Amino acid sequence: MTLFDGCGVALVTPFGSDGNVNFDALEKLLEHVISGGADALFACGTTGEPSTMSQKERESVISFCVKRAAGKIPVFAGSGCNNTAEAAEFSRRCEKLGADGLLVVTPYYNKCTQNGAYLHYKAVSEAVGIPIVSYNVPTRTSFNLAPQTLLRLAELKNVKAVKEASGDIDQVLEAARLLCGVLDWYIGDDSLTVPAMSIGAKGVISVAANVLPAQMHEITALCRDGKFREAAMLGFKINPFVKKLFCEVNPIPCKKSLELMGIEAGAPRLPLTELEPEHTEQLKAEMQKLGLIR
């Protein structure tokens, strides 16, 4: 069964001026994206800065999202890390917190083999009973989950989908060819949403949807209806802004965008820094063109 169709939001984690998680801002963000038509929530994935959060903080954010979603849309918890035993244990914790599924990134830094990655996912799969979305993002991890390995992952009882964020269109094409009818997949690059859905992606797990949930939802809905030209035209309209969301490392520009819109996402935690002034001005200009701010 498909986990969700359409637009999943790779949620930002708002931090307050005291450095702690700002749950008031998180509630406002959740209201914004859910009312905008988000089809799924992804808490404590890359965009949520889990690498600088304690386990207690991650658990509190995931639990908060589960309660606020109230079963209306699924909540996936980012539970991966490069320590297999730790990833399995935290995945069990997320299941107990009520997460509908897990987003499990490939092991990073260790530089494992393809077989090592398979065994990593096998261990996590055996530890839980909820669905797993494997997450391939080699620009972050320095490890690329090969399309052929995805076929092996499809044999595991709980691996139900993959978030493909390699940014390599040839790999996306090969994954689409191999996975058709075998394993669902979602694109992890906002700008590739339309071409990916035209060749079989179930949707996008989107950074831009923090800011533009309605537009990203509409793009995926148009694609589901086979209206790819209309979806592409909307994509062309927002893509200059989407491009600016990655002018510095994610989620730096996304947090600044939310701040400009009145959602107090706060500054990223070090070693990430606030958006540079020149990039802030460029971001503002694109947001003004879309009517997001004055």
How much of the sequence is in beta strands?
5-15%
Q: What is the structural class?
A: alpha/beta
Question: What proportion of the residues is helical, as a percent range?
Answer: 40-55%
State the total count of DSSP E strands. 8
Kindly state the mean pLDDT as a whole number? 97
**What is the radius of gyration computed over CA atoms, rounded to a whole number of angstroms?**
18 Å
The N- and C-terminal alpha carbons lie at a distance of 43 Å
What order do the SSEs take from the amino end to the carboxyl end, as H and E? EHEHEHEHEHHEHEHEHHHH
Helical segment count: 12
Molecular shape: globular
- What low-confidence regions span 5 or more consecutive residues with pLDDT below 50? none
The main β sheet shows up as: 8 strands, parallel
Strand order of the largest sheet: 7-6-5-4-3-2-1-8
Account of the 3D structure:
The protein is of the alpha/beta class. The protein has twelve helices and eight strands. Strands 7-6-5-4-3-2-1-8 form an eight-stranded parallel β-sheet. The longest helix is centred in the last third of the chain and has 17 residues, at 228-244. The model has no long low-confidence stretch (mean pLDDT 97).
